[in-house]
Amino acid sequence: MPRQPDQREPILQVRDLVKHFPLTQGILLKRQIGAVKAVDGVSFDLHPGETLGIVGESGCGKSTVARLLMSLETPTSGQIRYKGQDISRLSGRALKAVRRNIQMVFQDPYTSLNPRMTVGDIIGEPYEIHPEAAPRGERRRKVQELLDVVGLNPEHINRYPHQFSGGQRQRIGIARGLALNPEIIICDEPVSALDVSVQAQVINLMERLQDEFGLSYVFIAHDLSVVRHISDRVAVMYLGRIVETGSHQEIYDHPTHPYTQALLSAVPVPDPAAREHRERIILRGDVPSPADPPSGCRFRTRCWKAQRTCAEVDPPLAVPVAFQGARGPVAHDSACHFAEEKEHVAHG
Ligand SMILES: Nc1ncnc2c1ncn2[C@@H]1O[C@H](COP(=O)(O)OP(=O)(O)OP(=O)(O)O)[C@@H](O)[C@H]1O
Ligand code: SF4
Ligand SMILES: [Mg+2]
Question: What is the domain partition of the chain in residue ranges?
Fold first, then answer.
């Protein structure tokens, strides 16, 4: 069951975050002919100890958000405040100090671990960059502790990544993410490359570690079913924007945005009775190019409810007018002019 969200000050506040990648033409004289609007005005909070799930189809900007949070990219505009301080344009020592507290676990445990390094060197690598985190003489013991914490045999410290299964490799990636004792871990599709049976084990491990170390997670996935158990809150992204966001209950039980409803309708339902009642919403067409997003509501080219207003007026991410007087889980942020609850968007 999702825990109650923490009411303390957010540990991370993201405001109007934008990342446009320039599109250029010409070889010698590069001329900018446009921009890929990978992230185009994203705002959210992350509270201490909570998990925010970020979900959306391929190319909607999830990894770009992750890279911006990790300061691996500089935003075109907008702010990322960590404990109140804008960290989006830090450099040098100040950036290094913040980086210690914000770590990342990557999608593909097959390519994200250097095949020529032992797991001991991989997990201990962050200590090379932050030697103050562990004196040299203590590192081996620390790495063995980390192996134990993630459920691997500490005696396997001298093995190489290819000697481990996919799930075990992701445990190595998680151990590396924990090495500096961070407060926040950005998880960019950490289980997508794993078999479904192994996915659950890795997610359970991450939940246990979160409780043990008081971690806050941003957990990225392209499927709402993956983040269902781990998320306290969920943000649904489409073409560089968040289109609906709310608590676990608000998003899974009372989605009001057509895109979220379509994503939920595609999630496998284990209960046959519930399966019979639900209507599968098939989205037509492809995701438009982020270099040339549709006017007004970006989802309108695939939305079965689109009307003329949708092409003219960009719906804000706010509690829709229809629900502003309402109480309870239906009154949450949804960027749709015609937001409504839909019956039978069962999700098991
Ligand atoms: N360095 C870059 N230069 C130009 N375009 C980029 C760059 N990085 C990402 N993009 C583009 O930005 C958009 C968003 O990419 P991003 O990787 O953030 O999406 P994603 O949601 O993580 O997708 P996936 O689910 O496939 O991982 C895509 O259209 C991508 O091609
Ligand atoms: S604003 Fe219009 S096009 Fe966009 S999701 Fe709502 S109904 Fe569909
Ligand atoms: Mg990605």
Answer: 48-79+89-231, 257-347
Whether the full predicted model's pTM is greater than 0.85, yes or no, is: yes
pLDDT in tens, 257-302: 999 999 999 887 767 776 666 778 888 888 999 999 999 999 999 9
In CATH, the architecture of 48-79+89-231 is 3-Layer(aba) Sandwich (3.40)
SS3 92: helix
Report pLDDT digits (tens) over 144-168: 999 999 999 999 999 999 999 999 9
38 lines ligand 1 (CB under 6 A): yes
**54, 63, 187: residue to mutate for ligand 1 pocket, most atoms within 8 A of CB:** 63
- With CA atoms as reference, report the closest residue to 113 among 123, 126, 103, 98: 123
* Nearest ligand to the C-alpha atom of residue 339: 2
Report the candidate in 249, 238, 217 with the shortest Cα–Cα distance to residue 332.
249
